[in-house]
């Protein structure tokens, strides 16, 4: 994770001496850091409640003229109270530092999960719904985030998205007196160059002023694209080339993208802010609306039962909480197995784990692949000497009725080609994939 005002670097400032904050909070391990701030895990000494405590180096902030950013962040976060936005509990200050006591998002960064496996369209939609719910709320309160990017999207222990890091946010039409140096000029547009290149809207690059709401929508479009694809729509190692691609706004969607999603992406990533889709239009989009209950994620599907440590199937399946599930790869480290070139997908299913494994094994055999290892919750398949393809499928229990299926594969450019999972195996397993309109339990 990257705290606000990032640009990683910076001198160490020792937490040890300040482990105890005003006798009220205890500071634990470092969660992340940037040039001006560090974020620690912390807890309320009395209640034991967990928090993320952002310690901001006052002197550096002042030296770099960033006082206004800190004030703006406090002002923005104070006015926000939404289930998908990290809550600001309180702000404390010592002589050298300012401390933000923030709601702790136990699941870490959403995108550390996507970087391992792209998300199914259903999962992508659910996170996008939560994101839009949060952003629509911010906009309605006159707050524009302006730096929406993967590091600023966290997860709590219940599989819920939490938007954080309002360090670049601009506050308008509420109490602008909060910030002596407003960034809004006479034309009503914002004029600060901010954001992260790959997520930055073309009008920011053009430096002609921009509308905070419109640039947030663009970033949401990039985020949705990445959730679905597992990679960026506009990317290049050369920054100028990347900018050119952003300006042109030409992107290709991966072949697994539905026409409805493709349509929405093209409306989000419209280079013309005037015609770009608005939050009000997004919430009526047919692709977006599926399973949407206005509170964002319908938590019914993901809630854990109290004390859920048993499981279904006579307790054979260890039930995990959502946090365990989204980070389950760490419990079964695949990195040594697959290295860097692997690809993957993660989806939800209401089928029994045994059924998932059975169906994968069947599909593989129909493709004349070999099941090389099979356990109750895991199967490994490969193409043998002449077909350089390896597939690993792992099933984990999320709730009594839903499992998470993580699929990872590696293939060579030669036979059987990159289509093995997407075009041959996945279609055979499509009925296993949980659809919000009507959960399917296998065949
Ligand atoms: N890193 C930065 N902010 C955080 C938060 N609120 N919870 C967990 N990790 C974080």
Can you offer a commentary on this structure?
- The protein has three domains: 5-103, Phosphorylase Kinase, domain 1 (2-Layer Sandwich); 108-298, Transferase(Phosphotransferase), domain 1 (Orthogonal Bundle), CATH 1.10.510; 318-432, Kinase associated domain 1, KA1 (TATA-Binding Protein, 2-Layer Sandwich).
- Helices cover 29% and strands 21% of the residues.
- With 443 residues, it is α+β, with helices and mostly antiparallel strands.
- It has helices at residues 58-63, 67-78, 110-114, 121-140, 202-206, 212-229, 239-248, 259-268, 279-282, 286-289, 322-326, 335-338, 353-366, 419-429, and strands spanning 20-21, 25-33, 37-44, 50-57, 88-93, 97-103, 108-109, 118-119, 143-144, 153-155, 161-163, 170-171, 343-349, 370-374, 378-383, 387-397, 403-411.
- A hairpin with a 3-residue loop joins strand 15 and strand 16 (387-397).
- The protein has a six-stranded antiparallel sheet. A six-stranded mixed sheet has the order 8-13-17-16-15-14.
- The protein has 14 helices and 17 strands.
- The longest helix is centred in the N-terminal third of the chain and has 20 residues, at 121-140.
- The structure holds adenine.
- Adenine is lined by residues 1, 3, 31-32, 39, 52, 86, 102-105, 154, 164.
- InterPro entries: Kinase-like_dom_sf, NAF/FISL_domain, NAF_dom, Prot_kinase_dom, Protein_kinase_ATP_BS, Ser/Thr_kinase_AS.
- CIPK serine-threonine protein kinases interact with CBL proteins. Binding of a CBL protein to the regulatory NAF domain of CIPK protein lead to the activation of the kinase in a calcium-dependent manner.
- Its cofactor is Mn(2+).
């Amino acid at each position: 994770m990257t705290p606000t005002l990032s640009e990683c670097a910076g001198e160490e400032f020792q937490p040890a001496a300040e482990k105890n904050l005003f006798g009220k909070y205890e500071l634990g391990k470092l969660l992340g850091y940037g040039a001006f701030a560090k974020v620690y895990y912390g807890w309320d000494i009395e209640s034991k409640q967990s928090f993320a405590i952002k310690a901001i180096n006052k002197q550096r902030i002042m030296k770099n003229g960033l006082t206004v950013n800190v004030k703006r962040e406090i002002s923005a976060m104070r006015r926000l109270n939404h289930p998908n936005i990290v809550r600001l509990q309180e702000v404390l200050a010592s002589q050298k530092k300012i401390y933000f006591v923030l709601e702790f998002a136990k699941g870490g960064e959403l995108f550390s999960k996507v970087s391992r496996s792209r998300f199914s369209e259903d999962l992508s939609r659910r996170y996008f719904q939560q994101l839009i719910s949060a952003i629509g709320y911010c906009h309605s309160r006159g707050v524009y985030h302006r730096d929406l990017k993967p590091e600023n999207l966290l997860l709590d222990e219940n599989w819920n998205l939490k938007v954080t890091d309002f360090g670049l946010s601009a506050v308008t039409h509420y109490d602008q007196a909060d910030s002596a140096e407003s960034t809004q000029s006479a034309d009503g547009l914002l004029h600060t160059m901010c954001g992260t290149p790959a997520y930055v809207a073309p009008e920011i690059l053009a430096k002609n002023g921009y509308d905070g709401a419109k640039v947030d929508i663009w970033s949401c479009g990039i985020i949705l694209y990445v959730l679905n694809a597992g990679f960026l729509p506009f990317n290049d190692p050369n920054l100028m080339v990347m900018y050119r691609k952003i300006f042109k706004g030409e992107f290709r969607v991966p072949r697994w993208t539905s026409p409805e999603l493709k349509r929405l992406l093209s409306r989000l990533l419209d280079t013309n802010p005037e015609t770009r889709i608005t939050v009000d239009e997004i919430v009526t989009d047919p692709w977006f609306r599926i399973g949407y209950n206005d509170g964002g994620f319908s938590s019914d599907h993901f809630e854990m039962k109290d004390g859920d440590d048993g499981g279904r199937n006579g307790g054979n399946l260890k039930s995990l909480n959502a946090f365990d599930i989204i980070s389950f790869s760490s419990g079964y480290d695949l990195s040594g197995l697959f290295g860097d070139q692997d690809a993957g997908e993660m989806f939800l299913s209401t089928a029994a784990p045994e059924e998932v494994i059975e169906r994968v094994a069947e599909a593989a055999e129909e493709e004349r692949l070999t099941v090389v290892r099979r356990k109750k919750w895991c199967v490994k398949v490969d193409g043998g000497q002449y077909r350089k393809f390896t597939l690993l499928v792992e099933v984990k229990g999320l709730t009594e009725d839903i499992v998470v299926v993580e699929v990872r594969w590696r293939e060579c450019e030669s036979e059987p080609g990159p289509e093995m999972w997407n075009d041959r195996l996945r279609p055979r397993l499509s009925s296993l994939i949980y659809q919000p309109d009507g959960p399917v339990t296998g065949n």
